[in-house]
Amino acid sequence: MRITRTVAGRSRRAAVLATTGLTASALLLTGCSSDSDSSGSTGPDANGNITLTVADFGQFGYKEAGLFAKYHELHPNITVKEDATADEKIYYPKLLQQLNSGSGLADIQGIEVGRIKEIADTKADSFVDLGKVIDVNDWVSWKAKQATAPSGAVIGAGTDIGPMSLCYNTELFKKAGLPTDRTEVAKKVAGGWEDYIKLGEEYKKKAPAGTYFMDSASAMFNAVVSSNAEQYYDASGKPVYKESSSVQQGWNLAAEVASKKLSQGLAQFDTNTWVPALRKGTIATVACPAWMAGQISANAGEANKGKWDITTAPGATAANWGGSFLAVPKSGKNVEEAGKLVKWLTAPEQQAAVFKAIGVFPSNKGAYELPDVKNAKLPYFNDAPIGQIYADEAKTIPEAVLGPKDGVIKDTISTQITNMEQRGTSPDKAWKAATDAIDKAIG
Questions:
Q1: What average pLDDT does the segment 288-311 reach?
Q2: Are 295 and 15 in contact (CB under 8 A)?
Q3: Strands, E, within 128-280: which ranges?
Q4: What are the Cα distances from residue 142, in Å, to 249, 431, 438?
Q5: In the prediction, which pLDDT does 443 show?
Q6: How far apart are CA 367 and CA 362, in angstroms?
């Protein structure tokens, strides 16, 4: 998201932001081509020149923000080349293969949040302890902990996070007799996701023909689960998704949405269904992590500019949907220089530049007071003050317990929620199908 980060992990990533005083058009980022045929690390040449390779997935925004070129200006003997795989589902197995073989790794490797726990638990010895390179206190507290191995080594530097908000179509809200002011909408859902469903029932009573309150119950499910500390695993590393209160709450709410037909039942990011629905204006609300605003603006198009707005997410605690890390393999030929580049890329100024360029929200707290973040607004969304909204949401995100197979569990449950919406599968049958598949997949 890297816009094609896996759908389960949250596909992303989206649009060019407009900060105060600037206007920018949305840009759909569907992944970028590789800058090199091989991402493997090589040492300095005869003249002391170094090429640092960065392997990642989708689009991390460094090239778009001009950061690789800027780093070369600051360090003329260093050239940075990016090897980006569009789909994280393709990228990650390759990374595991390279780790197992000990060859082919780049100087810097991107790692998705849904994978970081597995890497930290099983492959930490393959990576440099970045806790000795960066100040982990610069990040939101839970970010560094996500990348901390049992030994205490911090194997990844946080790039971004995905604080949750709520995007809503003001034109559809007005036609349905609902408030359109973002403060008033926030009050309507202040009690949590149950209030969100109640608002959906209000919407349905006067909804314009052919429209739906939300795009996807599985997206709401993910938002519900992600706003809690305990999700799919407990602190001991045991899978507890069958007993988890957040999973049960999310599942029950999703089943309610399906039964009341409050959702259009779309698989998010599907170009044949979800994208046309945004363009046609049949969706009233979308659970909206920071990067999602760009997805909406890019896919809904200019015809819907000004019809959308953003407010705070339902409830007192925000969800975190998204985020990645940069890690430095020990096998690299330029370990020290790679560590310096990681430190620079994840510093406040550079994270703010990426936010301005493609809309990924910084994990480094120091970026929140910088003008490009603090004063950021989105013209497409009625000049919503996204810098302030996302920063405030980030403060309420709980420290979640991550597990090695979070992505698999989330993917499988989401599939069955979609079956409830699209096929009318009963909640009991859908839950059994999900748990059977998960048990088989995670052992």
A1: 93
A2: yes
A3: 157-158, 160-161, 164-169, 212-214
A4: 23, 30, 27
A5: 80
A6: 7
